[in-house]
C-alpha cells in the first residue's frame, strides 16, 4: 500500500464513522492541554500581527479567523476537516473581498474546476479550459469588458494561473487523488484571499502531505514556528525599508552602492516572510507542506540558490518543463538533454514571471532588466548543472561533518554566489537603461580604505555564516522525511519543549520593544526598535525604486480597490484629490497641479470646499480689509486638510481661536489663508508664495515636512524632463551650471538634483526672505509631523529646522505635537494613511498656537495671554489622555 | 527479488552520490530527495541508471518524491515496472 493509499484508507474509514461517535472520539482523543498550548501560541501570533501592524488589516483578520478555525478544525472528525477548511477559506474570501466579489471569484473558479472534470476526453477538456483562459485573458487585458472583475483579478489570477496548470498535469498523469473538497481546498486555500503573491503549491504534494503524520502536534508546531519566522522576516523587511535602504539617486560611492545592492536584495524578505506565514497557516489545517525558502542568503552555488529561493517555483518548473524536456531529449545524451532542459526551464521561468505579472497587474512585462536577469541566471545555472553532472557534488547522509578545508571552501563559495546574485538582482530591479546601470556600478570605484575594510569585514562575516550554517538541510516535517507512513510512531518530538521555546520567542519580541530603553542597547538600536511597530512601508515605498516583487506585492500601485479592501479603507475612498472636481492637473505649467476654484466635493468621505481663489478655505477678499491681520499658509496635504472636514483643518481651528481669544485687541480680525495643495514640493510652494503675495499677508507660514527633498527632486526632475518652462532664470542657470537639462539621463539627473537639494532650498528661502523684507512680511517655517512619524523623520525634521534657522527663518516646531499620544493610530485618518485626522489637527492647532505665544514676533501681535495658554495645554492633555485610553 | 533491487540501488547511490559514507547509514527508508541526497540532477542520473540496469522505462512524472524518495520506493517502482512489462 502506498502512503497515499494509506492516508486515503484512514480518510475513508473515518468518514464511515458515525458523526456523533466520531466527534466524541475526536474530543476524547484530543489532548486538551496540547490544544490549548497550540491555540495560545497562535493567539500570541495574532496579537503580534496586530500589535506590529504586520501585513494588511485583511491579513490580520484572516489570521484571527485561522485561530478560531484551527480549534474547531482540530476538534472535528477527520472526515469533516477538509469540508470545514474549504468553508473557512470561502468565508475568508467573503470577509476580505466582500460577498459579491467573493461570489464572482468562487463562481468563476468553480467553472474552471468543473471544466477539468467534464466527462469528455482530456484533450477536449484542455481545449475548453484554454478557451475559457483566452476569455479571461481578454478580460484581464481590458480588451473584453468584464464588469465586476476589477477587484478580483489579482486574486483570481493568483489562485488559478499556475495551480490550474499543475492540477491538469496531475489529472492527466493520475499522480494524485481528486475529489470535490480536495479540489476546492486546493484552489481556494485559506490565506490566499489576502496574498496576491502566493507560493506555487503543488497539488500532488498538497494531497500527499495532508495529515501524513500519525499525530498532528509536530505539524502544528512547525506551522507556528514558520508563521513566527515569517513575521520576523517581515519585521526585518520593515527595518530594511525604514532604516537601511537608499534610493539609487543617493548613491555616490562604493559604500552607498554596496548598501543599495544588499538592501535591494533584502527586500525579498517580504516574499519569504509571506510564504513562511502562508505555509505555516496551512500546517494548522493538516497540510504538512515543506519549506518554501531555505537559508537562501547562504547559497553556495547558482544551482544551490535556485534550489533554496522560492523552492516551490523550482519544483513547479522542474515538474512541468524541466523533467518532460529532459526525458524527451535524453536519447541525445545526458549533457545535451540537461542543457536543453535547463535553458527551456529558464525560458519558461522568464515567460511565466511576465505571465504572473500580467494576471496580478494586468499589463505585460517585457524589459531588458527582466530578460537579462533570467538569461544570465540561466547561463550561470547551466554551467553549474553541467559541472555537477560531470563531477557530482558533495552530499552527506547526516550533514555537518565537513572538514575545516571544506568549510572554508563553502564559505568562499557562499561569498562568491552572494556577490554575483546581488549584482544580478541590482540589475534586475534597476530603473534605467543598461548603460545607466553600468555607469551606476562605476560608483564602486569611488572607494576609500575604511570602506574597503568594511566591505571585506561584511563578506568575511557572510563567509563565516556560510561555512557554519550553509549546509543545513531544507526543513520538512517528519512525515515527509521518514517513510511517510501514517502509522509511524512519533518518538522524537518533544512537544512541550517546542511549545515553550516558541512561546518564549514570540513573547520576547514585544517585550524587547517595550523595554528597549532598559536594555543594554545602543541609541541606534533603541531608535530602530521604537519605530519597528509602525508600518511606514507605503510612505517609504513611494520614495524608492521598485523591484519586480515590490511591484507585485504593493496592491496600491495596481489595484486601488483591492488595496482599500486590504487596508480597511471604505470602498470608494478616493486616493487623490485630483480624482475629484476640486483638483486639476496642469502639466504644461511649472506648478503642475492646482485646486480648482469654487468647488464643493466629497473627498475621503469629508466635505472639501474651495473658494473662488482656488484655496481649500473659507472665502476672503483679495484685498486685505483694514484692521485684519493676515496669515498665508504654504504647504501640502496636511495643511490643506487631507482627510478632514472643512472646519476641522488646523488652519481653520487656529483662525477661529485667534478670533475668539485675540480679536479686538491689536487687530479686529485674523484671517488665515490656506494656499496648500496636496503633493506640493518646495518649488511649487514658491509658486504659491507668489500668489499669496497678491493677498497682502502680514506673515507667511512655510510648511516643512520629512519628505521635503524627495518631493523637490521629483517635481524638478518631472518639469525638466517634460521641458516645462522654468519661470526663474536664476534657477535655470543653476541647473545648467550643474549639467542638468532635459537630455540628462533619469538617474544622473536625480542624483545631481539630490546633491543640489540643500542649495536649492536655501535659494528658495533667500529669495522669499528678500521678497518678504521688501514688503514688510514675516516669513516663518512650520515643522509638521506625520501621524506615524518615526524617529528617523524627527532627526530629518530637526535638520530642516536647523537649516531654516540658519537661513534666518523663525521656526514653529510642531514635530512634538503628538508626543502625548501613545497610540499613533488614534491621530491618523485611516490605517496606512499617515495624514492626521480631526483629532490630530486639533493637536496641531493647539501646538501651533502654543508655539506662536512663545515666539517674540507673535507676542507683539497677540499679546501675552498666559491664562489662555495654560488652558490650552490642559485641554490638549485631557483630550490626548482620552484618545490614548480609547486607542488602548 | 526486491532485496536484490534494493541492494543494487543502494550500491549505486553510495558509489555515485555518497562516496566515503558509511553504508550502514543508508537505510531502505532513508529519505533521498527530501533528505537532500538526491537533487534534480542526481535524480535524473538515478533514473537513467534504473532504466539501463533493469531494462525499464520511467516516465517524466514518475521522477518525483512519490516514487524515488527511498530505496524502498525505488524498489517498488522497479518491481511494478518489471511486473507490468511481463
The total of beta strands of chain B comes to 0
Computed CA radius of gyration of chain B, to the nearest angstrom: 12 Å
Straight-line distance between termini of chain B = 15 Å
Shape of chain A: globular
Strand order of the largest sheet of chain A: 6-5-7-8-9
Q: DSSP strand (E) fraction of chain B?
A: under 5%
User: If interface size is counted as residues with C-beta under 8 Å from the partner's C-beta, which chains form the largest one?
Assistant: A-B, 40 and 32 residues
The low-pLDDT segments of chain A are: 1-14, 481-490, 866-888
**Rg from Cα of chain A:** 31 Å
The helical percent of chain A reads 55-70%
- The amount of beta strand of chain A, in percent, is 5-15%
Overall pLDDT metric of chain A: 87
Question: Could you give the distance between the termini of chain A?
Answer: 57 Å
Helix proportion of residues of chain B, in percent? Answer: 55-70%
Tell me about the largest β-sheet of chain B.
Answer: none
The overall average pLDDT of chain B, rounded, is: 87
Tally of strands of chain A = 11
H/I helix tally of chain B: 4
Largest sheet of chain A: 5 strands, parallel
Number of helices of chain A: 37
Amino acid at each position: 500500500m502506498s502512503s497515499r493509499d494509506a492516508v486515503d484508507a484512514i480518510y475513508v474509514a473515518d468518514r464511515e464513522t458515525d458523526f456523533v461517535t466520531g466527534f466524541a472520539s475526536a474530543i476524547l482523543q484530543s489532548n486538551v492541554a496540547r490544544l490549548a498550548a497550540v491555540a495560545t501560541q497562535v493567539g500570541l501570533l495574532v496579537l503580534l500581527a496586530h500589535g506590529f501592524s504586520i501585513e494588511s488589516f485583511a491579513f490580520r483578520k484572516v489570521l484571527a479567523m485561522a485561530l478560531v478555525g484551527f480549534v474547531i478544525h482540530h476538534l472535528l472528525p477527520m472526515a469533516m476537516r477538509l469540508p470545514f477548511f474549504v468553508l473557512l477559506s470561502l468565508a475568508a474570501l467573503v470577509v476580505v473581498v466582500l460577498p459579491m466579489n467573493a461570489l464572482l471569484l468562487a463562481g468563476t473558479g468553480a467553472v474552471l474546476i468543473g471544466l477539468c472534470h467534464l466527462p469528455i476526453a482530456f484533450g477536449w477538456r484542455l481545449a475548453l479550459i484554454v478557451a475559457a483562459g483566452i476569455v479571461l485573458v481578454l478580460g484581464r487585458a481590458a480588451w473584453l469588458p468584464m464588469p465586476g472583475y476589477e477587484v478580483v483579478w489579482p486574486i483570481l489570477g493568483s489562485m488559478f494561473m499556475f495551480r490550474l496548470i499543475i492540477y491538469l498535469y496531475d489529472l492527466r498523469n493520475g499522480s494524485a487523488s481528486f475529489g470535490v473538497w480536495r479540489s476546492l481546498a486546493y484552489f481556494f486555500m485559506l490565506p490566499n484571499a489576502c496574498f496576491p503573491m502566493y507560493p506555487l503549491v503543488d497539488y500532488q504534494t498538497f494531497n500527499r502531505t495532508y495529515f501524513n503524520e500519525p499525530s498532528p502536534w509536530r505539524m502544528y508546531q512547525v506551522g507556528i514556528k514558520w508563521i513566527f519566522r515569517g513575521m520576523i522576516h517581515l519585521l526585518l523587511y520593515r527595518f530594511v525599508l525604514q532604516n537601511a535602504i537608499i534610493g539609487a539617486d543617493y548613491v555616490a560611492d562604493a559604500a552607498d552602492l554596496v548598501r543599495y545592492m544588499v538592501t535591494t536584495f533584502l527586500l525579498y524578505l517580504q516574499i519569504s516572510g509571506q510564504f513562511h506565514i502562508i505555509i505555516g497557516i496551512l500546517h494548522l489545517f493538516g497540510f504538512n507542506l515543506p519549506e518554501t525558502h531555505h537559508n537562501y542568503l547562504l547559497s553556495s552555488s547558482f544551482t544551490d540558490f535556485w534550489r533554496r529561493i522560492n523552492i516551490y517555483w523550482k519544483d513547479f518548473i522542474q515538474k512541468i518543463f524541466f523533467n518532460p524536456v529532459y526525458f524527451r531529449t535524453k536519447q541525445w545524451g545526458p549533457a545535451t538533454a540537461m542543457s536543453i532542459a535547463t535553458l527551456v526551464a529558464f525560458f519558461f521561468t522568464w515567460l511565466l514571471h511576465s505571465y504572473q505579472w500580467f494576471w496580478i497587474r494586468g499589463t505585460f512585462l517585457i524589459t531588458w532588466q527582466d530578460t537579462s536577469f533570467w538569461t544570465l541566471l540561466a547561463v550561470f545555472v547551466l554551467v553549474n548543472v553541467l559541472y555537477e553532472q560531470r563531477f557530482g557534488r558533495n552530499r552527506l547522509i547526516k550533514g555537518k561533518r565537513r572538514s575545516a578545508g571544506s568549510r572554508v571552501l563553502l564559505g568562499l563559495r557562499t561569498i562568491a554566489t552572494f556577490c554575483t546574485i546581488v549584482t544580478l538582482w541590482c540589475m534586475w530591479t534597476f530603473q534605467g537603461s543598461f548603460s545607466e546601470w553600468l555607469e551606476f556600478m562605476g560608483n564602486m570605484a569611488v572607494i576609500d580604505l575604511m570602506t574597503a575594510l568594511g566591505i571585506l569585514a561584511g563578506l568575511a562575516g557572510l563567509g563565516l555564516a556560510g561555512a557554519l550554517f550553509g549546509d543545513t538541510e531544507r526543513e520538512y516535517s517528519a512525515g515527509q522525511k521518514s517513510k511517510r507512513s501514517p502509522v509511524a510512531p512519533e518518538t522524537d518530538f518533544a512537544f512541550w519543549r517546542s511549545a515553550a521555546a516558541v512561546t518564549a520567542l514570540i513573547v520576547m519580541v514585544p517585550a524587547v520593544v517595550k523595554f528597549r530603553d532598559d536594555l543594554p542597547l545602543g541609541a541606534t538600536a533603541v531608535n530602530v526598535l521604537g519605530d519597528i511597530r509602525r508600518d511606514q512601508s507605503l510612505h517609504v515605498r513611494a520614495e524608492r525604486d521598485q523591484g519586480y516583487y515590490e511591484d507585485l506585492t504593493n496592491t496600491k500601485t495596481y489595484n486601488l480597490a483591492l488595496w482599500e479592501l486590504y487596508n480597511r479603507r471604505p470602498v470608494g475612498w478616493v486616493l487623490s484629490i485630483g480624482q475629484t472636481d476640486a483638483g486639476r492637473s496642469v502639466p504644461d505649467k511649472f506648478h503642475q497641479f492646482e485646486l480648482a476654484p469654487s468647488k464643493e466635493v466629497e473627498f475621503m468621505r469629508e466635505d472639501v470646499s474651495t473658494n473662488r481663489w482656488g484655496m481649500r478655505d473659507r472665502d476672503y477678499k483679495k484685498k486685505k480689509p483694514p484692521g485684519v491681520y493676515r496669515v498665508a499658509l504654504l504647504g501640502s496635504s496636511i495643511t490643506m486638510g487631507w482627510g478632514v472636514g472643512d472646519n476641522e483643518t488646523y488652519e481653520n481651528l487656529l483662525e477661529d481661536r485667534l478670533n475668539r481669544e485675540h480679536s479686538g485687541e491689536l487687530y479686529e480680525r485674523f484671517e488665515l489663508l490656506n494656499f496648500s495643495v496636496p503633493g506640493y514640493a518646495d518649488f511649487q510652494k514658491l509658486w504659491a508664495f507668489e500668489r499669496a503675495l497678491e493677498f497682502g499677508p502680514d506673515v507667511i507660514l512655510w510648511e516643512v515636512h520629512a519628505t521635503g527633498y524627495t518631493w523637490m527632486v521629483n517635481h524638478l526632475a518631472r518639469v525638466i524632463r517634460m521641458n516645462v518652462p522654468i519661470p526663474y532664470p536664476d534657477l535655470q542657470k543653476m541647473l545648467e551650471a550643474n549639467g542638468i537639462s532635459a537630455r540628462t539621463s533619469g538617474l544622473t539627473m536625480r542624483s545631481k538634483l539630490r546633491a543640489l537639494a540643500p542649495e536649492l532650498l536655501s535659494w528658495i528661502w533667500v529669495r522669499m526672505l528678500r521678497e518678504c523684507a521688501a514688503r514688510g512680511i514675516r516669513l516663518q517655517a512650520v515643522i509638521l509631523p506625520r501621524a506615524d512619524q518615526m524617529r528617523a523623520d524627527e532627526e530629518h525634521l530637526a535638520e530642516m529646522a536647523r537649516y531654516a534657522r540658519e537661513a534666518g527663518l523663525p521656526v514653529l516646531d510642531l514635530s512634538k505635537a503628538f508626543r502625548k499620544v501613545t497610540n499613533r493610530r488614534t491621530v491618523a485618518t485611516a490605517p496606512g494613511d499617515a495624514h492626521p485626522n480631526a483629532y490630530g489637527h486639533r493637536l496641531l492647532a493647539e501646538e501651533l498656537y502654543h508655539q506662536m505665544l512663545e515666539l517674540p514676533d507673535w507676542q507683539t501681535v497677540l499679546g501675552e495671554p498666559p491664562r489662555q495658554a495654560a488652558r490650552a495645554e490642559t485641554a490638549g492633555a485631557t483630550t490626548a489622555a482620552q484618545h490614548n485610553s480609547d486607542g488602548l | 527479488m526486491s532485496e536484490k533491487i534494493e541492494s543494487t540501488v543502494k550500491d549505486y547511490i553510495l558509489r555515485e552520490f555518497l562516496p566515503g559514507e558509511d553504508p550502514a547509514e543508508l537505510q531502505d527508508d532513508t529519505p533521498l530527495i527530501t533528505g537532500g541526497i538526491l537533487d534534480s540532477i542526481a535524480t535524473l542520473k538515478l533514473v537513467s541508471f534504473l532504466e539501463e540496469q533493469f531494462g525499464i522505462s520511467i516516465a517524466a512524472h514518475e521522477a518525483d518524491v512519490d516514487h524515488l524518495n527511498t530505496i524502498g520506493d525505488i524498489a517498488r517502482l522497479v518491481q511494478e515496472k518489471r511486473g507490468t512489462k511481463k
